[in-house]
Amino acid sequence: MCQPINVRPAMSWLCAFTWLLCLIRSGLADDNTFKEKAQPFFAQHCQECHKGTKPKGDFHLDRLPPDFDDPENRERWLNVQKRLQTGEMPPKEKPRPPQAEIRALNDWITRQLAAAAARRSAEGRVVLRRLNRVEYENTMRDLLGIDIELKQLLPPDTSSHGFDNVGEALHISSFLLERYLEAADAALNVAIANGLQPPLVKKRYSLKDERIVKVDTERVYRSLDDGLVMFSSSQWNAITVGQFYPSDRGKYRVRILASGVQSSGKPVSFRIDVGPMLMGTVNHLVNYYDVPPDKPTIVEFVDHFEARNHFRISPYGLANAQTVSKVGAEKYDGPGLAVQWVEVEGPLHDRWPPESHRRIFGDLPQAPVPDRNFSKRVEVVSKDPEADAQRILRNFARRAFKRAVTDADIHPVLALVKEKLAVKQSFEQAVRVGLKAILVSPDFLFLREKPGRLDEFALASRLSYFLWSTMPDEELLSLAEKKSLGDPETLRQQVERMLNSPKAKAFTENFVGQWLNLRDIDFTSPDFRLYPEFDELLKTSMVNETHLFFNEVLKNDLSLTSFVASDFTFVNERLAMHYRIPGVEGHAYRKVKLRPESHRGGVLTMASVLKVSANGTNTSPVIRGAYVLDRILGTPPAPPPAGVPVVEPDIRGATTIRQQLAKHRQIASCATCHTKIDPPGFALESFDVIGGWRDYYRSVGNGKEVKIDGRRMPYLQGPKVDPADALANGEKFRNIDELKQLLLKDKDQLARALTEKLLTYATGAVPTAADREEIETIVRKVRDKGYGFRTLVHQVVESGLFRNK
Amino acid sequence: MIINRRHFLRAAGVSLALPLLDKRVFGAPMAPPRRMVCICTPLGLHAPNFFPEKAGREFALTPYLESLREFRNDFTVISGLAHPGIENGHDSMYSFLTAAPHPELRTGFRNTISLDQFAAERIGTETRFPSLALSGEGFSLSWTRSGALVPSHTSPARLFASLFIEGRPDEVQAQNQRLRDGQSILDKVGDQAKSLQAGLGAGDRDKLDEYFTSVRELEQRLAKAEEWSKKPKPKVDAKQPQDIPNPADLLGRTRLMFDLTHLALQTDSTRLITILLSGASLVPPIQGVSMAHHDLSHHGQDPTKLAQLKIVEVETLKVLRDLLAKLKQSKEDGGTVLDRTIVFFGSNLGNGSSHSCRNLPALLAGGGFKHGQHLAFDAKNGPPLSNLFVSMLQKLGIESDKFGSSSGCLTGLA
Fold first, then answer.
1. In whole angstroms, what is the distance from residue A238 CA to residue A185 CA?
2. Which of A676, A307, A436 is nearest to B187 (CA)?
């Protein structure tokens, strides 16, 4: 920032000229207007409250220089403009400034913003961004052709504007760089084969031979001639197949022959997890499966096992251990899961050395090397080390850098390998050093984009990280090489191809995971006294529902207003029970038509969203209201002013949060924001912390007894829920259904909000005020196509904001 | 004399700790090492059970402080502190040791350097590890000058190995080869700085600059690590701990981290440690506790929850007591390790149930302060927590009169 300084007469005319240029560049030439227009306005209408050491809303007018290049200061000006435009400031009880004055100030701010944006666009809106750890892991997976978790080697990423792929928030440190070196080692050790092919093992086991069954004192398992019946769904009665204990990592095929017994003609369900199965370690869910009654059926899956991993079979929805134990499994007549046998085959390798190895070294031969710990160690050898190294590195760099490479790109890495060869490191070790150098170079770790229109390779990467969260595949790279990716029709076809690919799962998981915050699904666990019905399957099902719903809207180009209200959703039996939708059996998810009285449809009334917008104990209309404003309406509320006491939650059943908040809204400075934040939150009070419908709060202190199917619940019936309220503009609603209809009134705003989120995620930088016009163009085009969401994705990709840095 | 020699080493890019003996050879009186441990319990502490009512030296021990009775004259409890500009929510954890305002904003937050890293830049050059960030979660409390998270050590077993266990000769050799390879890689990558930075806008240049600064710093660190690898690691009586895989086991995991903290300080392997305790949404295996820790912190005034929360928090304080005891029992050069170690225990939340970030719980032990009092500030208008940080920095011998949002040092603390 240039400040007007004393220009001594002795200064050369050149200096003076430079100084003048500086003034123009930084927008200070308009300083006069600032002094003439803005400052008197502020002095007359604003300063009374916003000056001194403790200004209202913690907003310091005396700390608001006319500097529009500084992002934070710019945001402050945007805030001023927004409040002027909406008429929110000065507050209602103060005299209104003349319209002409408001307009003049508003126009001045707009001009400054546009000028600052023009200065920025010369550099590009999107700052150089590094891969986040999800993108890093995916990229390493696709680059090397391996299956390995690298994420946990890297520190968590920080996010900005709600997304962890925003360049400005992604920093690098020596610590992170050190982890990249370690991760590269770990990945190369898996990709490169230094041994003989691990032997293929195929074995069939009986659960009767498991230790946990042999020492069963609870009497929850029944032995059959040809298998074992599990009757208990209690966690500790699940069976980890200890007989299978692979010594080599890789893909394994598992087949389980099982059926339901005594299940009154209904299927019986179970889940499979794979992992180390040590207490508290992280295992991963493979899936939930149903098997039909009395007819042994094979369930088969292929999954990646690390060495010494196990798999575990947990029956779902059966009785607990106590119930079975009382009569003993021999006499127990409730439903059970019969498992005849389990069979495991693997590790499955199509060829050896594996594809990942060949991708780097091609067909170069391997030869034994002495190793004190590993007697059969082999390494790649070469008769012409320098030529082979050059070819290997060039090949690798092209894909790692995601662009055509030149000799100059390879030169430093090759020099490094030669140095290592010169000090008598082996060929493979020297090449590994070169590969590592590529894997920590900025060309690999960053998405390099030059100012202006993106070149073909940068476009391929931006597209690929947007829709796949990973590097471009061969088709994208070769289109970029031919310089034809940028052609609008080709680009359109590629977006279609990419959205139809299984890799687009990453878009759903990462975009939805952050847009709707589903990544926080495990952040709190519901209080089991208040929510005894909550279980793992319900949690899994709710997240799957949202993903499936998003995919459906995307696949069929349905209106983006479906995210607010829809007449369909996806459920399985467990979720249907939660939503009180009759007639859904089994674990398969299916699209169901919603009746109006279901109060469901759209994402806001999905259990997943309702869970992440609450904690495990209580809901807050403020938190949920802010969620709706930020994520759906695109009008995030300002943070609460400093020093305001927070409402202290109370679940003893005497007062409702609504009564507590009512006091809040009586204070004028709180009301400004809370008349906007609270209403959607009040409507959502009809849903509890796990997204179940409620007419009454649940309480642990005061209230009536609650009985379901004759069983007394551990919670009591608290006060009645009152979901009715009015929006800030006075429009009243009685419940969530009416609120949804009100939200649907301004479809353009819903489109605008989602466009901004998508653009942020797609480009790694938030759109600014200067990009408003382009966003409006996108909104207009999408409106013409019935607000189709797939259309929106295409429009985002076609937009100048996506095609330029 | 000492200064000159160390300056020489630093200029040569190899600034190593001079073992205590070396320093004596030069004959100059040696300043005792100054150390700091910062601990954060991320779900807060229930204030009525923690803060005494009365200020000054005559305060009555509260249910939580009761656990620390034998250390009454070794700690100061401070009420009324808060970070200005840091309002409600768990995101306040990111700024606990940095004081960077508005981490709760979803827009454009950039963190600043944390207290330990700030200190490490000044006093972290003498030990095998400039600083250590331990964590029961993925995040750590430590942030670099550029606002990047310092990765945490989450496996006490692995950290123990790198602190105290000499590898087999072939492992040491392989590790040294990796360190040398790493240095040559960084050297080559660093060479490209100029060519890559040409023709970029200011934002991109900053980013690349951050990258190349990291390259240089890591190169130096690997060089130091290679030098250190030639020196024998300190010997300790303790056995390598086994990691506790159960993430719900708050106390067990905390104890492992605290035990390692004691060993690392006692052997002068590092002088700066940050520890983020876990705040899991899981039921900790503690007698009398049946609900998840995070869930308990959102007690909503429910007496059952408050009772269980109290059990969890009292037990946590008892683990802290054991750390203080170990530090006090370890004697060195006529004092105790505790005398030279500032132990700061606190939380980013003043009230876990409402997510308030006012009136943060803060307990300061050891480090050469005059203890045995309750420093009470006005909860509505107390001084910035950073004032305490400035006082801590000064006690470390760092001449700094400003950190984060400080307005001075903390009055009443000597």
1. 37
2. A436
Pick A441's closest partner by Cβ from B189, B207, B292: B189
Residues B290/B307, Cβ–Cβ less than 8 Å: no
Separation of alpha carbons A561 and A788, rounded Å: 9
Closest chain A residue to the Cα of B198, Cα to Cα? A450
Query: A176, B189: Cβ pair inside 8 Å?
Result: no
Look over chain B and give the mean of its residue pLDDT values, rounded to a whole number.
Answer: 89
Q: How many whole angstroms separate alpha carbon A193 and alpha carbon A376? A: 12
Shortest distance between the Cα of A629 and any Cα of chain B, in A, equals: 13
Residues contacting residue A36 through CB under 8 Å, at least 6 positions apart? none
Chain B contacts of A647, Cβ < 8 Å? 354
Q: At B366, is the secondary structure helix, strand, or coil?
A: strand
Residue whose C-alpha is closest to residue A596's, from A566, A625, A556, A555? A566
Residue B388 — φ and ψ, nearest 5°? -65, -40
Residue-wise pLDDT for A8-37, tens only, equals: 333 344 444 444 443 344 444 456 677 777
> Tens of pLDDT along A104-162?
888 888 888 888 877 776 788 899 999 999 999 999 999 999 999 999 899 999 888 89
Partner-chain contact A175 B294, CB within 8 Å:
no
How far is CA A348 from its chain centroid? 31
> Who contacts A627 (Cβ-Cβ below 8 Å, separation ≥6)?
A517, A609, A613
- Report the b/e string of A748-758 with b at 16+ CB within 10 A: eebbbbbbbbb
Q: What is the dihedral of CA A68, A70, A75, A78, to 10 degrees?
A: 0
Q: Are A229 and A238 in contact (CB under 8 A)?
A: no
3-state SS string for A332-359: CCCCEEEEEEEEEEECCCCCCCCHHHHH
What 3 state SS string does A393-440 have? HHHHHHHHHCCCCCHHHHHHHHHHHHHHHHCCCCHHHHHHHHHHHHHC
Residue A302 near residue B271, CB atoms below 8 Å: no
Q: Which amino acid is at A771?
A: D
d(CA B374, CA B208): 48
The tens digit of pLDDT for each residue in B291-315 reads 999 989 989 889 999 999 999 999 9
What is the average pLDDT value for chain A, to the nearest integer? 90
Statement: residue A645 has pLDDT above 70: no
Q: What's the pLDDT score for residue A30?
A: 55
Residues of A in contact with B214 (CB under 8 A): 172-174, 176-177
CB contact under 8 Å between B182 and A181, yes or no, is: yes
Evaluated on CA atoms A274, A275, A277, A280, the torsion sign reads: negative
User: What is the interface pTM, i.e. ipTM, of the complex?
Assistant: 0.84
Alpha carbons A262 and A266: distance in angstroms, whole number:
9
**Which distant-in-sequence residues (6+ apart) come within 8 Å of B197 by Cβ?**
B205, B208, B209, B212
Distance CA B19, CA A765 (A): 49
Distance between A657 CA and the closest CA of chain B, angstroms: 11
Which residues neighbour A237 within 8 Å (Cβ) at sequence distance 6 or greater? A212, A218, A220, A221, A230, A321
The per-residue pLDDT for range A482-507, each reduced to its tens digit, is 999 999 999 999 999 999 999 999 99
Per-residue confidence (pLDDT) for residue A660, from 0 to 100: 78
More confident: A228 or A654: A228
B247 in contact with A, Cβ within 8 Å: yes
Whether the pLDDT of residue A518 is over 80: the answer is yes
Q: Determine contact, residues A313/A230, Cβ cutoff 8 Å.
A: yes
The residues that bridge with A304 in the sheet, in sequence order, are A251
Q: Is the pLDDT of residue B159 over 70?
A: yes
